[in-house]
Amino acid sequence: MESSESLGKWISILNRYNQNYISKHLKEYNIGSGQYIFILNLYCNDGISQDKLSDLLAIDKGTTAKAIKKLEEAGYVRRDVDETDRRAYKLYVTQKALDIKPIITRVLNESSSFLSFDFTEEEKLLALKLLKKMSDNAIKYLE
To answer: Which UniProt keywords apply (predicted)?
Structure first.
Protein backbone atom coordinates (compact mmCIF):
# COMPACT_ATOMS: atom_id res chain seq x y z
CA MET A 1 0.00 0.00 0.00
CA GLU A 2 1.37 3.44 -0.92
CA SER A 3 1.99 5.87 1.94
CA SER A 4 -0.56 8.26 0.39
CA GLU A 5 -3.12 5.47 0.73
CA SER A 6 -2.49 4.69 4.39
CA LEU A 7 -5.43 3.82 6.60
CA GLY A 8 -4.26 6.36 9.16
CA LYS A 9 -4.50 9.21 6.66
CA TRP A 10 -8.12 8.45 5.78
CA ILE A 11 -9.14 7.73 9.36
CA SER A 12 -7.60 11.05 10.37
CA ILE A 13 -9.49 12.93 7.64
CA LEU A 14 -12.78 11.25 8.58
CA ASN A 15 -12.26 11.96 12.26
CA ARG A 16 -11.29 15.60 11.71
CA TYR A 17 -14.28 16.42 9.51
CA ASN A 18 -16.66 14.48 11.74
CA GLN A 19 -15.40 16.23 14.88
CA ASN A 20 -15.65 19.62 13.16
CA TYR A 21 -19.25 18.89 12.19
CA ILE A 22 -20.18 17.78 15.70
CA SER A 23 -18.38 20.74 17.32
CA LYS A 24 -20.14 23.20 15.03
CA HIS A 25 -23.58 21.79 15.82
CA LEU A 26 -23.10 21.40 19.58
CA LYS A 27 -21.20 24.64 20.17
CA GLU A 28 -24.29 26.59 21.25
CA TYR A 29 -24.79 23.99 24.01
CA ASN A 30 -21.21 24.46 25.24
CA ILE A 31 -20.29 20.88 24.37
CA GLY A 32 -17.05 20.23 22.53
CA SER A 33 -16.41 17.39 20.14
CA GLY A 34 -14.30 15.70 22.80
CA GLN A 35 -17.08 15.81 25.38
CA TYR A 36 -20.22 14.54 23.68
CA ILE A 37 -18.93 10.96 23.77
CA PHE A 38 -18.95 11.07 27.58
CA ILE A 39 -22.53 12.33 27.80
CA LEU A 40 -23.61 9.80 25.19
CA ASN A 41 -22.17 6.94 27.22
CA LEU A 42 -23.58 8.28 30.48
CA TYR A 43 -27.08 8.18 28.97
CA CYS A 44 -26.69 4.38 28.93
CA ASN A 45 -24.47 4.02 32.01
CA ASP A 46 -25.77 6.58 34.49
CA GLY A 47 -24.03 6.09 37.85
CA ILE A 48 -20.89 4.52 36.37
CA SER A 49 -17.57 5.29 38.02
CA GLN A 50 -15.26 7.73 36.31
CA ASP A 51 -12.58 5.01 36.01
CA LYS A 52 -15.00 2.54 34.43
CA LEU A 53 -16.13 5.19 31.96
CA SER A 54 -12.49 5.72 30.95
CA ASP A 55 -12.08 1.97 30.44
CA LEU A 56 -15.34 1.68 28.50
CA LEU A 57 -14.26 4.42 26.09
CA ALA A 58 -10.59 3.38 26.00
CA ILE A 59 -9.66 6.95 26.98
CA ASP A 60 -7.00 7.77 29.56
CA LYS A 61 -8.16 8.81 33.00
CA GLY A 62 -6.69 12.33 32.77
CA THR A 63 -8.60 13.10 29.58
CA THR A 64 -11.78 11.72 31.12
CA ALA A 65 -11.31 13.84 34.25
CA LYS A 66 -10.87 17.03 32.19
CA ALA A 67 -13.91 16.32 30.02
CA ILE A 68 -16.09 15.45 32.99
CA LYS A 69 -14.98 18.61 34.81
CA LYS A 70 -16.04 20.75 31.82
CA LEU A 71 -19.35 18.92 31.54
CA GLU A 72 -19.93 19.33 35.27
CA GLU A 73 -19.18 23.07 35.06
CA ALA A 74 -21.60 23.35 32.13
CA GLY A 75 -24.30 21.62 34.18
CA TYR A 76 -24.55 18.40 32.17
CA VAL A 77 -22.94 15.97 34.62
CA ARG A 78 -23.03 15.50 38.36
CA ARG A 79 -20.17 13.78 40.19
CA ASP A 80 -20.92 12.11 43.51
CA VAL A 81 -18.39 10.49 45.80
CA ASP A 82 -18.74 6.70 45.61
CA GLU A 83 -20.00 5.53 49.02
CA THR A 84 -18.07 2.24 48.72
CA ASP A 85 -14.79 3.91 47.67
CA ARG A 86 -14.48 7.49 48.89
CA ARG A 87 -11.59 8.11 46.44
CA ALA A 88 -13.79 7.40 43.43
CA TYR A 89 -16.66 9.25 41.79
CA LYS A 90 -19.90 8.08 40.27
CA LEU A 91 -21.19 10.08 37.33
CA TYR A 92 -24.77 11.03 36.55
CA VAL A 93 -26.36 13.02 33.76
CA THR A 94 -28.43 16.00 34.83
CA GLN A 95 -31.83 17.03 33.54
CA LYS A 96 -30.03 19.57 31.36
CA ALA A 97 -28.17 16.70 29.66
CA LEU A 98 -31.38 14.72 29.25
CA ASP A 99 -33.04 17.76 27.67
CA ILE A 100 -30.46 17.88 24.87
CA LYS A 101 -30.31 14.12 24.24
CA PRO A 102 -32.52 14.43 21.13
CA ILE A 103 -30.22 17.15 19.78
CA ILE A 104 -27.05 15.12 20.33
CA THR A 105 -28.73 12.08 18.78
CA ARG A 106 -29.85 14.12 15.76
CA VAL A 107 -26.37 15.61 15.21
CA LEU A 108 -24.72 12.19 15.43
CA ASN A 109 -27.29 10.66 13.08
CA GLU A 110 -26.73 13.48 10.57
CA SER A 111 -22.99 12.93 10.84
CA SER A 112 -23.36 9.21 10.18
CA SER A 113 -25.66 9.96 7.26
CA PHE A 114 -23.26 12.26 5.47
CA LEU A 115 -20.29 9.96 6.13
CA SER A 116 -22.16 7.04 4.60
CA PHE A 117 -23.98 8.97 1.89
CA ASP A 118 -24.63 6.80 -1.16
CA PHE A 119 -23.65 3.60 0.70
CA THR A 120 -25.84 0.54 0.40
CA GLU A 121 -27.01 -1.00 3.67
CA GLU A 122 -24.48 -3.79 3.15
CA GLU A 123 -21.67 -1.26 2.70
CA LYS A 124 -22.72 0.56 5.88
CA LEU A 125 -22.68 -2.69 7.84
CA LEU A 126 -19.33 -3.72 6.36
CA ALA A 127 -17.77 -0.31 7.09
CA LEU A 128 -19.00 -0.47 10.68
CA LYS A 129 -17.73 -4.04 11.08
CA LEU A 130 -14.30 -3.14 9.70
CA LEU A 131 -13.97 0.03 11.79
CA LYS A 132 -14.89 -1.91 14.94
CA LYS A 133 -12.33 -4.58 14.04
CA MET A 134 -9.63 -1.93 13.48
CA SER A 135 -10.49 -0.34 16.83
CA ASP A 136 -10.24 -3.71 18.57
CA ASN A 137 -6.88 -4.31 16.88
CA ALA A 138 -5.59 -0.92 17.98
CA ILE A 139 -6.67 -1.49 21.58
CA LYS A 140 -5.10 -4.97 21.69
CA TYR A 141 -1.87 -3.77 20.11
CA LEU A 142 -1.46 -0.75 22.37
CA GLU A 143 -2.31 -2.54 25.63
So the answer is: DNA-binding, Transcription, Transcription regulation
